[in-house]
């Protein structure tokens, strides 16, 4: 029953996003009557999602997701992190890969996220995926949290990036605390 409720809520959110993105043909504002003054006031139209927001439609693994942006399914590679592999056909499932992937599914699947670009990293990677930071509830940095929990490495592809210093400090703290990947016997 709980899964059905979550599915129904996700479906409603997705429909609402599609409504906001595509709009409704012949949409009319129907005036409301203010009972006390007798004046009509327009019904406010729905507010579209701010630029950079979308709904997560699929979690590939701990560092790659699909997001509905402007009605398009878009693949996002999260900047600054690298999680153990779970879906690369050239590699076996790596230590803590399933945990990182499950964390992403729990935190992101069906949720509204804010995506932030970083000009230092370019718009897309060599596979055509958008490069973005992912924020949950407008402020929780998903990538930083994955590093803090020991489920991701700090990852610098080529150039220094906006949150690099913070991510490196988080990885060092996770290593020192022996969390996740850094725990004794975690990958034996």
Any descriptors?
single chain; 188 residues; OB fold (Dihydrolipoamide Acetyltransferase, E2P); five-stranded mixed barrel; 4 helices; globular
Protein described:
- With 188 residues, the protein is an alpha+beta fold.
- It has a domain at 52-182: Beta Barrel (OB fold (Dihydrolipoamide Acetyltransferase, E2P)).
- Helix content is 29%, strand content 23%.
- The strands form 3 sheets. The protein has a 5-stranded mixed barrel. It has a two-stranded antiparallel ribbon with strand order 1-2. Strands 6-10 form a two-stranded antiparallel sheet.
- A hairpin with a 6-residue loop joins strand 1 (32-33) and strand 2.
- Helix 3 (142-148) packs parallel to helix 4 (164-177).
- The radius of gyration is 20 Å and the shape is globular.
- The two termini are 38 Å apart.
- Mean pLDDT is 81; it is low at 15-49.
Strands in their spatial order, largest beta sheet: 3-4-5-8-7
Named CATH architecture of the domain at 52-182: Beta Barrel
Task: Write down the overall mean pLDDT.
Answer: 81
Share of β-strand residues: 15-25%
CATH fold annotation of the domain at 52-182: OB fold (Dihydrolipoamide Acetyltransferase, E2P)
Give a summary of the structure in a few sentences.
The protein is an alpha+beta fold and 188 residues long. 29% of the residues lie in helices and 23% in strands. It has a domain at 52-182: OB fold (Dihydrolipoamide Acetyltransferase, E2P), CATH 2.40.50.
């Amino acid at each position: 029953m709980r899964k059905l409720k979550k599915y129904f809520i996700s479906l409603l959110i997705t429909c609402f996003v599609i409504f906001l993105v595509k709009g409704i043909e012949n949409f009319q504002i129907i005036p409301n009557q203010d009972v006390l003054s007798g004046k009509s006031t327009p019904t406010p139209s729905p507010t579209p999602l701010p630029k950079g927001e979308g709904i997560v439609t699929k979690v590939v693994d701990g560092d790659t997701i699909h997001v509905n942006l402007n009605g398009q399914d878009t693949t996002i590679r999260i900047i600054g992190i690298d999680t153990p592999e779970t879906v690369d056909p050239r590699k076996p499932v790596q230590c803590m890969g399933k945990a990182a992937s499950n964390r992403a599914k729990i935190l992101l699947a069906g949720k509204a996220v804010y995506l932030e670009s970083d000009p230092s990293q370019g718009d897309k990677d060599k596979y055509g995926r958008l490069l973005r930071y992912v924020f949950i509830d407008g402020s929780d940095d998903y990538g930083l949290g994955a590093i803090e929990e020991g489920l991701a490495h700090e990852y610098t592809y080529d150039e220094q990036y906006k949150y690099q210093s913070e991510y490196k400090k988080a990885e060092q703290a996770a290593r020192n605390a022996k969390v996740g990947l850094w725990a004794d016997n975690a990958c034996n």
